[in-house]
Amino acid sequence: GAVVSQHPSRVICKSGTSVKIECRSLDFQATTMFWYRQFPKQSLMLMATSNEGSKATYEQGVEKDKFLINHASLTLSTLTVTSAHPEDSSFYICSASAWGAQFFGPGTRLTVL
Amino acid sequence: GENVEQHPSTLSVQEGDSAVIKCTYSDSASNYFPWYKQELGKRPQLIIDIRSNVGEKKDQRIAVTLNKTAKHFSLHITETQPEDSAVYFCAASSSNDYKLSFGAGTTVTVRA
Lengths: 113, 112
Description:
The complex is a heterodimer of chains A (113) and B (112). By secondary structure, chain A is mainly beta. In chain A, 0% of the residues lie in helices and 55% in strands.
């Protein structure tokens, strides 16, 4: 149980384009999902909390208009990086909350050229 | 907000020896303390967790201890094996919002 998937696993895009990343809880329902960003050899930094049926809560310093989050159902949250720039290149990981713990997706490696 | 500090940043041990990683936290409201293992390019995997109503928890070669008064918790890996080599992260959260605050990570290398 507690399997979380993420799609795509890797994406390369041109500067100025938008990229959508999907996070799904496969065998459980998650009213809350979280989005993290991880730069090489660094820790996970929480970007935002995604709540089903309501607006996401963003951490300080994270631009909500640049990182659009939609939690349309109890099993799906999406993160859209709008007008991506090279400095947005990173490893984006989602997690879903269940039974008081967090379970992580496999991550999406975003490279912006 | 919560601030989690983790030490050491790197740890090299001989196969069969023990490894200990220590974390401190700042928010007294935190009541859930998980440990994650992350291999290069992969997702963090929950290896053990502890809640504030217990002081110690063990799962085979892995144990975690918690001292709420001092606001610190530790991960102990005994009889280390090469496959234990990875980056380990501690984290803390409260039942108020379940947001995890992570430590900076410890790169563990087990020498064969």
